[in-house]
Design a protein that fits this description.
By secondary structure, the chain is of the alpha/beta class. It folds into two domains: about 1-15 and about 25-145 and about 255-290, D-Maltodextrin-Binding Protein, domain 2; about 150-250, Periplasmic binding protein-like II (D-Maltodextrin-Binding Protein, domain 2), CATH 3.40.190. About 40% of the residues lie in helices and about 20% in strands. The protein is built from eleven helices and 15 strands. It has a five-stranded mixed sheet with strand order 7-2-8-15-9. It is elongated and about 60 Å long.
Length: about 290
Amino acid sequence: MKIRMVKRIVGTLLALVMPLSMVACGEEEAAETTESVVETAEDSAESSAPESVEGALKGVTLSFGTSGLFAPFSYYDEDGNLIGFDIDFCNALQDYLGFEIDGEMQAMDYSALGTSLAEGKLDFGMAALCATDERKEVMSFTNTYCDSGLSIGINTETSPSELNSVDMLSSGDYKLAVEKGTASHMYAQKIGVPESSLEVHDEITTAYESLEQGKVDAVMQDTPGLAYYIKTADDTKVKIVGEPFNQGQSPYAIAFSFDCVDKNPEIVEIFNKAVEDLIADGTYDELSKKWLE
């Protein structure tokens, strides 16, 4: 208990400096994603969770947080409704396990979401959150339910025709747009894209605007997010080039506050088993086809 208390104190302090790192982590096509998730689920088959967890959380009420900022996982439609893969997956988990949501789903920016989970103001969250070592210091995570990678998008009319690989970006010959604080931003820095060739945006929407207008040569984003933009944007000139990369480094998982785990010690393993079951019965595939293809 003393160790957990120290972690809570450290967690509160870290929550104050996590705004950038709490942004949705980086972004593989749905078939590859499903395969990776199934592998993760199989790896956890020897967990302590019971063989069946259907209805295991009946009578339990949990507060839930998400972002509302990151399509196609969690965002608002034109009518102001929260929609997306994470929202539908949370609803499926709720129906299967039987728990209730305390009030309404709470949408907030990533900084507030991280702080709320770290301080125990929320029980759990789903918002394309990467289970990084830093975050594991302040909250608990399930196994991966979506192993996202990164991809490059170019403008088919204005980008250089030879630009077809992420490996070409470190030369500094091409202008790249990324969203500030994301896995894409960090990866661009990691591979040595010069600052003079890196256009950093506060929101991914303006990065896409810059690419559509031919002001930059490429955008780097999580593959599902980039694919969804191309699928839904009107008259877009953007297309994906090359293969997804940085795979296995952006594992999305469900986050739980330490307080929630203290009150429900088996809850992480129960959710792990529920995710396995929803993969096995085809629910996960249906949602992937709906949101990630």
